[in-house]
Design brief:
Elements (H helix, E strand, L loop, with lengths): L10 H6 L6 E4 L11 H12 L2 E11 L3 E11 L5 E2 L10 E6 L14 E5 L4 H19 L6 H24 L21
Antiparallel strand pairs: 1-5, 2-3, 2-5, 3-4, 3-6
Helix pairs in contact: 3-4
């Protein structure tokens, strides 16, 4: 099971994260842009072509039980159109994006934050997401450098919880839903 980017996200799921509006932003990676480096990619683009930084959130779902919001930077062109210039192996043509300039206050040393939102009420899920938040906080407070020991400690705790999380995902994924495994196929045509 992994986080995945479903073609559609129900508005009720987005509302749980306080998101009221999303737009589909075209992805057109530029030469020299690096994956996972959107803010620096956008700043370099603006130096050459103009425009401004537009911050916002992109979305992925884990097992239909948790929503991950990842802060992301795109270009707002001189024509006021949004453009994603960062290569992304999971998103090829367009990215679902919710503009939010308040992210600017959450950036630490050019590292962008994440938010995790449980989609169901469950203590095990809350504990699992707390581990992901811990990893994100370590990344933000240590300029992106997290020791191998810290990673292993968090991963070990997550492994203990994983069987319960997988079972929750199976129980909360209907046949018509995108499969909990992350394949982007409907469950009826994927995991049984």
């Amino acid at each position: 099971m992994q986080y995945f980017d479903p073609p559609n996200i129900d508005k009720s799921i987005l509302r749980k994260a306080g998101i009221n509006e999303t737009v589909l932003v075209p992805i057109k990676p530029i030469k020299g842009a690096f994956p996972l480096n959107c803010l620096n990619n956008v700043k370099a683009y603006i130096e050459h072509f103009g425009g401004e930084v537009q911050l916002g959130w992109i979305f992925s779902i884990m097992g239909n039980i948790a929503l991950k919001l990842t802060a992301h930077a795109v270009v707002k062109t001189k024509e006021q159109k949004l453009l994603c210039i960062t290569p992304n192996p999971y998103r090829k043509n367009k990215v679902r994006f919710s503009p939010d300039n308040d992210i600017n206050g959450l950036i630490v040393d050019n590292f962008l934050p994440q938010k995790l939102v449980p989609l169901i009420s469950n203590t095990m899920l809350d504990n699992y997401l707390a581990l992901e938040r811990e990893m994100n906080d370590l990344r933000l407070t240590n300029s992106g450098v997290v020791s191998q020991r810290q990673v292993q400690n968090i991963e070990l705790k997550a492994q203990v919880l994983y069987p319960s999380i997988l079972q929750l995902a199976k129980e909360n994924t209907l046949q018509k839903d995108y499969c909990f495994c992350g394949s982007n196929k409907k469950r009826a045509k994927c995991c049984k």
